[in-house]
Amino acid sequence: MRLRDRDNHLAWSEFLEIYEPVIYRLARRRYLQDADAREIVQEVLLRVAAAIDRFDPTASGSFRGWLSQTTRRVVVDRFRRIGDTALPVGGQLDLLAGVVDGAENPFEVEFDLEHRRQLFRCAAEHLQRELSATSWAAFWRTAVQGHPAQVVASQLGISEGAVYVARCRVLKRIREFVQQREAE
C-alpha cells in the first residue's frame, strides 16, 4: 500500500531491492538473454506503477501473488512476440509450459521461493554491515556453509558456545528482518 504514494522513495527503493532481482532471475530461468530479462523487469515495474492504485488485496489476493501473475503475463507476452526464433531445444511450447496457469502454478511457487531467497540476501547484506566480523563469520560458516561449530570456533579463536550464540542471534535478526519486510 505504501507504493501508492509515488513520492515514497523509501517504499519504492525497498520494493526494487527485493523484487527487481527476483523478476530478473525468473526471466533468465526461462532462457531469456540478459537484455530480454532486463526488459521483462522494466515491463513488470511499469505495469506495477500503472496498476498499483487499483490493486485490491481482497479481490486480487496477496501482493506477491498479484506480482507473480503480472510477471508471468509479461513473460508469456514476450514469448508470444518472439515466436520460435532463437528458442532452446523443445521450442516455445516447452518454455510456455513453465509459465502458464495450471492446477498447481509452478511459476507462482518458483516466484515465492525466489522472493524468500532475495529476502535472505537483503537481510544478510544489511546485517553483515551491522555485526562484528567475528559474529558474522560464526553465523555464515556454520549456518550457510555448514562447517561444524567446533572447527569455526577454533578458526575464529572463540569458544564453541560463542559460535552457537552468534549463530542464534544472527538467525533471529534475519527472521525479524524478513518478518518486517513481509508485513510491509
Automatic annotation (TrEMBL):
- Molecular function as annotated in GO: DNA binding; sigma factor activity
**What keywords is this UniProt entry annotated with?**
DNA-binding, Sigma factor, Transcription, Transcription regulation
Under SUPFAM superfamilies, the record lists: Sigma2 domain of RNA polymerase sigma factors (SSF88946), Sigma3 and sigma4 domains of RNA polymerase sigma factors (SSF88659)
Q: Which NCBIfam families does UniProt cross-reference here?
A: sigma70-ECF
Record the organism: Stieleria maiorica
Supply one GO BP term.
DNA-templated transcription initiation
Question: What InterPro entries is this protein classified in?
Answer: RNA_pol_sigma-70-like, RNA_pol_sigma-70_dom, RNA_pol_sigma70_r2, RNA_pol_sigma_r2, RNA_pol_sigma_r3/r4-like
Q: Which protein are we looking at?
A: ECF RNA polymerase sigma factor SigE
Family, according to the entry, reads as follows: Belongs to the sigma-70 factor family. ECF subfamily.
The record places domain RNA polymerase sigma-70 region at 17-81
> Pfam families from the xrefs?
Sigma70_r2
